[in-house]
Amino acid sequence: MNKQNSAVTSVGLRVATVMFQMGIDGLPRNYELVYEAYSGNNPELTKGFIAIGKHKTQKALDELGRKFLPHHHEESVAARTNERMRTEITSFIGLLEEEQSSLSDYSKIIDEASRSFSTDGEIDRETLSRSIQQLSMATERQASKSEALVAVAAEQAAALEEVKSDIDNFERMKFVDPLTGLANRRAFNKAVARVYSNPDLPMMCGLAFVEIDDFQRFNAKGAGDHAIRHVGQLFQGANREGEFIARLDGNRFAFLVNSAAEDEIMRVIDRMRAAAAMRPVIISDNGTGLGNATLSIGVAMSTIADNAARLMGFAEQALAASEKEGGDRATLFSRNAPASAGEQKGWMIYKA
Q1: Alpha helices in 239-335 (DSSP H)
Q2: Of 208, 190, 198, residue with least CA distance to 307
Q3: What is the pLDDT of residues 269-315, one digit of tens each?
Q4: Which Enzyme Commission number(s) are on file for it (predicted)?
Q5: In which domain, by residue range, is 269 found?
Q6: Among candidate residues 148, 245, 268, the one with its CA nearest the CA of residue 187
Q7: 156 domain residue, yes or no
């Protein structure tokens, strides 16, 4: 197992263990917060996590999350949007009040002109001329102001449409991995949490953690992201049943396969492995082939775990077993392994 794969597996296993030992609820935002704290990618977050102390309340975790993972606390996004909307609406109300005042002045001029036109007796040409001139000038001013109001109203309508687009885009992209177009870790955390939304009756499914073997080989050629995107696209093409697929981080993916049957779970896993091996990774700039991507996979069934943290922990252990055996295989963590498995009792190993 290369150092990068070992490090990722180690972090994932520690996260599941720490959450269980510290009694941290298996909420999606908690898993990502603990993962980031233990991965070492954000030293300040790690310091903040340690500073909370041994007993980490949900309130303290959320305060830390608001600072470092604001996407989990959508009220801050809503607050910013609300402030922008309030500014736009206040501005528009001001324009309407100005328009109302202008119309009132215009109405007075029209009223005065009307009185001069309807006066009985001899017509005062000078008064009539003055009234016509005032009415003409007032009409031009009002028309100009109305045009300006229409233009500003159009600008504000465009601004409000932009706000709506930003909100829609935020809702869409916060659960999408930008490199592959698959679901991201946040979406994965929510999906795993839903498995145990009813603790007494968890969803029947299998969780698979997946890593690209010998990923350093692709990184050394400057094709790490290309390999990840390539494998993600092959997974999408092979996902005929519409199972949940996410890219978590680095060269790691995850599947949630809806089935209570282990053999059905492994058939889906085998199809994904075959898809990854179907086409070699090719650097598009010069057409250089880097060979096929093989996968190490660890699978655990929801039926053998009573919460999301344990399910992920079992899948991590299965993944570690696959990598220890040299990769290019899938390991199922199962309570139904045959007695002949010897020292590997409790495991079923599927090889290519």
Answers
A1: 262-276, 308-324
A2: 198
A3: 999 988 888 887 776 655 566 778 889 999 999 988 889 988 999 99
A4: 2.7.7.65
A5: 177-351
A6: 245
A7: yes
CA-to-CA dists, residue 47 to 23, 27, 42, 52, 150, angstroms: 20, 21, 9, 9, 54
**Rounded to two decimals, what is the model's pTM?**
0.56
Query: How far apart are alpha carbons 310 and 307 in whole angstroms?
Result: 6
- For residues 99 and 25, give the distance between their C-alpha atoms in angstroms, rounded to a whole number: 56
One-character DSSP codes across 23-49 = T----HHHHHHHHHHHH-S-HHHHHHH
Whether 313 contacts 17, CB under 8 Å:
yes
Contacts of 110 (CB under 8 A, 6+ apart): 135, 138
Is 351's pLDDT higher than 80?
no
Pull the structure tokens for residue 273: 């492995």
Residue 207 lies in a domain: yes
Q: Report if residue 293 sits inside a domain.
A: yes
Query: Would you state the structure tokens that stand for residue 288, as one six-digit string?
Result: 């250089």
CA-CA distance, 136 to 120, in Å (whole number)? 23
Q: What is the mean pLDDT of the chain?
A: 76
Rg (CA), the chain: 32
* Tokens describing residue 171: 């809702």
The Cα–Cα gap between 333 and 349 comes to 9
Name the residue among 162, 173, 199 with its Cα closest to residue 71: 173
Tokens of 89: 């609406």
Q: Indicate the helix (H) or strand (E) that contains 207.
A: strand 206-212
User: What type of residue is 285?
Assistant: D
Last residue of a domain, one of 173, 198, 216: 173
Note whether 197 and 157 are same-domain residues. no
Question: Are the beta carbons of 262 and 301 closer than 8 angstroms?
Answer: yes
Quote the CA–CA distance of 98 and 284 in Å, as a whole number: 60
> What is the count of structural domains for the chain?
2
Average pLDDT of the segment spanning 148-166: 69
Are the C-beta atoms of residues 308 and 276 closer than 8 Å to each other? no
